[in-house]
Structures are given as C-alpha cells and as structure tokens.
Amino acid sequence: MTITTLSSRELNQDVTRAKKAAKSGPVFITDRGKPAHVLLSFEDYQRLTRQRRNIADVLAMPDAADIEFDPPRMAIGARLADLS
C-alpha cells in the first residue's frame, strides 16, 4: 500500500493524478500543511465501512419478508439439578 500526500492546490490542478494514486492506497489531502481529507478507492471505502450484521439487524430490514429463514427446532427438556 502506497500513501500519497497532496496539497489542496495539487489536487485541484491534477485530479487524475490523485485518482490514480488512490488505486494503490490512500491519498492524504492537506490544507496549509495539515491533513484535512483522505481520498480512497471505492473498494477500500467499502472494506473499511463493512459491518457485520446480526439476525436482529437483518429481520429489522424493510424487505425482511423476502428472506427465507427456517431455523431448526430445538428440543429442550427438563433435567434434574445436580446439587452434590
């Protein structure tokens, strides 16, 4: 992964360079010498923002009715407690 740093002025003068650089790693964009923004490829952005879903999140989705969900039934029986 290559990290590229460009000033805001450099970015404005050569956007194509910044987009090409983002293919190989993040591009830090500075304002007055301080990092202000980061340009990422869309794939890198998706990888960073990907979240794991749990079953409650999926069932809360508006189109959850379209999801097939047929979990196996569990047999839960009573057992005597071992108090020894």
UniProtKB/TrEMBL annotation:
Q: Which domain of life is it from?
A: Bacteria
UniProt-listed Pfam families:
PhdYeFM_antitox
Q: Which SUPFAM superfamilies match?
A: YefM-like (SSF143120)
Q: Which InterPro entries match?
A: Antitoxin_Phd/YefM, YefM-like_sf
Q: Name the job this protein performs.
A: Antitoxin component of a type II toxin-antitoxin (TA) system.
The UniProt entry's sequence similarity note says: Belongs to the phD/YefM antitoxin family.
NCBIfam families in the record, alphabetically?
phd_fam
Q: What is this protein called?
A: Antitoxin
Native organism is Pulveribacter suum
Q: What is the lineage of its organism?
A: Bacteria, Pseudomonadati, Pseudomonadota, Betaproteobacteria, Burkholderiales
